[in-house]
Amino acid sequence: MRVLAILLALVSVTVAEILQNGQLRANPYPGQVGTIAITASNSSEWKAYPPNATELSYKGRWDSKYISWWSAPGLKFGFTGDNVAISFGNYTDAGVLVAYRVDGQDWQFSNVTANATYLFITPSTTGVNLTTPANAVQTFEMRVTNWAYGVQLAGVWTSCSGGLVKIPNHPMNIEIIGDSLSAGQYATYEGISSYSWGLGEGFGNVEFSITAYPGICLHDSRCYGNLRGQTYQWLHTSDTSGRAIEIWGDNPELWNFTAHQQANVVVINLGTNDNNTSNNITGPEFYQSYIQMIEEVHSVWPKAQIILISLWNGFGAVGNTYAQGGAFITEIYQVYQYFNSGKYANQDFVYYFNTTGILQHNDINPQYHPTDVGHVKLASHLLQYIKMQFNFTFGATGPEVQHDTLYWNDEQNY
Question: Fewer Cβ atoms within 10 Å of its own Cβ: the N or the C terminal residue of the chain?
């Protein structure tokens, strides 16, 4: 195959920086891939798959135009052959950063843009052709790292001698509903550095979706530029971003719950934005909206176990130490009590997860969101809680979950 003779161009690298204790991280986005031109003269060397190919598994929420939404949506498939390329459509944001990997290799990163095809897999790609026997099926996975940007899938290409293979879903599925804290805002790799990601990917044997967007409230009202709250938006495919308004206006597609895998566990972490006085949402309004949210979830997934996360809401100095703030402490616990009494007594599908003591003041970064360590701590506690409460098992066997967390002290001569 004359792949190397095909026009290959490097994309511009991302301009974002990652800080480690105030120091710039060297080479924070390894794995940049180039564009490739598939034309009439070389199309016979490629096998084409449209975005609706049954071999493709979409992760998170994608609409009928094959546009990705919310935090860390992705694509997964098996492949054979030496080359895999992906074409992105007109609705792909310019320079959006995607993470990708082969099987259990470490995550790599590349910027992509609209109306271009990127060559993600070649014979020299790390991890390719390490399987036994030769030409065995390997797994490719891609995730959109940022919560505000998205991609539109236009198609997937493989070597003419290879092809795509459907990778079956894991039997268990977790849904995380939240705001910036769950979306991964200000974490190093954003969506794939969040506690939500650490929870879903950390199990290693579950499907998961992160339906979270920064600034959004639980209550259906305008909050930090978001026109609607989660009691409305969660029922729809797209998020509350400006690009969603540009594409769908005030008539976003409803999410077809029956067409997608049902959730076994739903984690809700909402209320931090509602609690801000600038959004003017009262305790009673928040309480009623939380009840509405849970009833919506229970209506579409009647067998799902729902976990309510208590809000830490930052830390402040108290005398010569620090203390956790908290928000809507009474209201959230009363919602938990409501679904464990009265007409819901003995149904046992709503649980209360108290975050007090998990995070400390130095687990919050200067932008008022968890550090990577903070996200890992919260994810670790949730992993154990769900494992013990619902008899989940740990299926991760060694591949990295959060990328680039190798911090250590190499001094041996004290």
Answer: C
Q: Give alpha helix (H) positions in 193-241.
A: 195-203, 230-233
Residues 6+ apart with CB under 8 A from 320: none
Q: Reduce the DSSP state of residue 68 to 3 states and report it.
A: strand
- CA 277/CA 273 separation, integer angstroms: 9
**Beta strand 172-178 with 265-269: parallel, antiparallel or unpaired?**
parallel
Q: In this structure, are residues 65 and 152 in contact, taking their beta carbons and an 8 Å threshold?
A: yes
Determine if the pTM surpasses 0.90. yes
- Beta pairing class for 108-112 and 96-102: antiparallel
In tens, the pLDDT along 106-136 reads 999 999 999 999 999 999 998 887 876 767 8
Is there a contact between 36 and 4 (Cβ–Cβ < 8 Å)? no
Residue 308 has which token pair?
């309510």
| CA dist., res. 381 & res. 239, Å (int) | 28
Residue 86 DSSP symbol: E
pLDDT, tens digit, for every residue of 378-394? 999 999 999 999 999 99
Q: Distance between CA 174 and CA 16 in Å, rounded? A: 30
Give the chain's end-to-end CA distance (angstroms, integer). 57
